[in-house]
Amino acid sequence: MAYYKPDRIAEITVENGVKKAHNSVMNVMILGFLAGAFIALGFLLDIRVIAGASEALGGIAGFVGAAIFPVGLILVLLAGGELLTGNMMAVSLARFKKRISTKEMIRNLALVTVSNMAGALFVAYFFGHVTGLTGSGVYLEKLVDMAGHKLDDSFLQAFLSGIGCNWLVALAVWLSYGSDQMSGKILGIWFPTMAFVAIGFQHVVANMFLIPAAIFEGYYSWGEYFINFIPVWLGNFVGGALFVGAAYGTVYLKKNDKAQVIPRGEQDAALPSAPPTGPAQQVHSA
Q1: SS3 58
Q2: pLDDT given at position 131
C-alpha cells in the first residue's frame, strides 16, 4: 500500500489549508453542515449500539462504541466536508507557512464553527429528538450520562482534554493525506479517532451533537453548554494547530519559512504560463 513520507504530507496539508481558506462562503457552509452532521451521525451510532450493552462487558462496550464512531470522520474525509478540528490543523499550518493571511484563517474557522454547529444540531434535533432515537429508555440514559461527564469537567480539564482530542484527530487527518487509496485513508483515520473516543477526550464538534441532544430532551442548559464549548474549542485549536500543524511544519517545511502571503487576486498571475512537463501530483482534499 503506497503512502507519502511526512515531508510530502506536510506539503499536501499546506495546499489543502490554502484551498480551504479560499473556498467560497457557500461552499464552506454546505460542506461544514455536512461535516457536522456526519460527526453527529457517528456519535448517534455509538449511542444506539452501546446503550443497551450489559454492564458486565465493562470497557469492551466502550471500545465497541469507539470503534464505530470513526465512520463520521471517514465520511468527512472521503465523501467531502469541512470539519473544524481538521481545519484547525490544515488552515493554521497554511497560515504558519505564510501562504494565507490571519484574516483568511479566522474567517474559515468562524464559518466552519457555525456550519458544523448547524449540521450537528440538525441531527440532534430531528434524528435524535423528533425521531425519538435519543428520547427514551437506555438511549436517553446513555445520552444524559455521556453529556453529563463532558459538562462535569472544569475549564482546565476541558481545555486539556480538547488538546488531547485534536492531537489525535488532526493526526487522523494527517495520516489520511498520506495515502492516495481509500483503504489506506480509512486505516489512517480509524486508529487515532478510535483512540480519542476510547480515552474520553472532548471533541468540540461531537459535543455540538451530544450536549444539545441532551438539552432537547430536557436536561442541562445552554449556559452550561457554552461554558464547556469555549475551553474545548480552544483546546482543540491548540492540539491541532500547535501539536500537529506547527510541530510538523517546523520540522518538514523549513525551506518555506520565508514564503510570503500572495493576495488572492494576484495568485493566477504568479502561475507559470506553460504547464509542467512532468506528471502533476495529486492534492488531497477533505
Answers
A1: coil
A2: 96
Ramachandran sector of residue 202 (left: φ over 0; alpha: ψ -120 to 50; beta: rest): beta
**pTM of structure:** 0.87
pLDDT at 52: 83
Classified as helix, coil or strand, 80 is coil
Evaluate if residue 44 carries a pLDDT over 70. Answer: yes
The overall average pLDDT reported for the chain is 90
Backbone angle region of 80, left / alpha / beta, with phi > 0 → left and psi within -120 to 50 → alpha? left
Residues 6+ apart with CB under 8 A from 16: 90, 177, 283, 284, 285, 286
281 SS3 class: coil
- Give alpha helix (H) positions in the chain: 6-21, 25-50, 59-68, 71-79, 84-96, 102-122, 137-152, 155-177, 182-199, 204-216, 222-237, 247-252, 267-270
Please report, for residues 62, 80, 94, 99, the alpha-carbon distance to residue 32 in angstroms, rounded to integers and kept in the order given: 28, 9, 19, 22
CB 241 within 8 A of CB 92: yes
Predicted pLDDT at 168: 98
CA–CA distance, 36 with 206 (Å, rounded to integer): 8
* 272 three-state secondary structure: coil
One-letter amino acid of 216 = F
What is the C-alpha to C-alpha distance for residues 262 and 104, in angstroms, rounded to an integer?
Answer: 12
User: Which pLDDT belongs to residue 274?
Assistant: 42
Give the C-alpha separation, 119 to 29, whole Å: 10
| Grid cell of 46 as nine digits | 455509538
